[in-house]
Amino acid sequence: QVQLVESGGGLVQAGGSLRLSCAASGRTFNLMSMGWFRQAPGKERELVAAIIWSGRATYYAESTQGRFTISKDNAKNTVYLQMNSLKPEDTAIYYCASSSAVGGTKETQFEYWGQGTLVTVSE
Q: Deepest in the core among 51, 56, 59, 63, taking most CB within 10 A?
């Protein structure tokens, strides 16, 4: 079992920044690949960023490339999502998830999920 707890969501104005954190426990974190997903009202959940277990490779959705940065601190069992230049369309519930697959980007490849943290970007 893996427990994931997100934090750092909130209300921010367009153009602002937020950093989300996801603390993991229950398994060997340094062997897990991690992803950040989001789900906006009325839309399907989508992957915004992912990082492989070693932290040496990352993936970004086209909509977040250049604005979001995912990082993984194996010493702290935590994965981060730094979000800059936020836009109203980034408003969503953000979820972190863990995967035993290397380089997985499909939702079905992520076995454990956090409860989500709400990010609201105002005009």
A: 51
In angstroms, the CA 122 to CA 16 distance is 10
Distance CA(26)–CA(15), nearest Å, equals 36
Buried b (16+ CB within 10 A) or exposed e, 37-46: bbeeeeeebe
Give the residue carrying structure tokens 């005009």: 123
Radius of gyration of the chain (CA): 13
48 phi and psi, to 5 degrees?
A: -105, -30
Half-sphere exposure of 39 (CA within 13 A, CB side): 9
The torsion angles phi and psi of 31, rounded to 5 degrees, stand at -100, 0
**Cβ neighbours for 66, distance < 8 A, ≥ 6 positions apart:** 60
Q: Which residues face 22 on adjacent strands?
A: 6, 79
Q: List pLDDT tens digits, range 92-103.
A: 999 999 998 888
